[in-house]
Amino acid sequence: MFSNQQRQQIAAILGVATDLAIATVRPDGWPQVTTVSFVADGTRIYFGSWSKSQKVQNIERDARVSISVTPPYTDWSSIRGLSMSGHAMRVTDSAELGRVFELMVSKFPQIGQFLKGDDVEMALFRVDPEQVSILDYTQGFGHTEAASA
Length: 149
Description:
The chain has about 150 residues and is an alpha+beta fold. The protein has four helices and nine strands, in the order αββββαββααβββ. A hairpin with a 2-residue loop joins strand 3 and strand 4.
């Protein structure tokens, strides 16, 4: 289980970053890395994608994902980031979809410009990280800490 301190560190990093790199497993077994914007609710991560994208097809076939998040930094002594693994699950519950949409609109007010009408077929996913490596150079160059859910 994540300690309270680890949970706070993870949530703090997720709270200030806007994009993440997510690796999915392609049909040929090779990893595919894609950058997506995301929102977080504590340590839980949500992201959307066009429902017909290769990323969505990959997740529907194999839900295992790896994620990397690094908020902006000005010098190496302030680098913080996360490297995580987990399973991406498609969100279908209407209450959860509503909550995530509120988070997305709050973080990305421009979202309405891109999601107009029924012509956009979006898939929304949730990832609850299972293994996390917390990178925090403020505690020394190369400092990392492993954490498990």
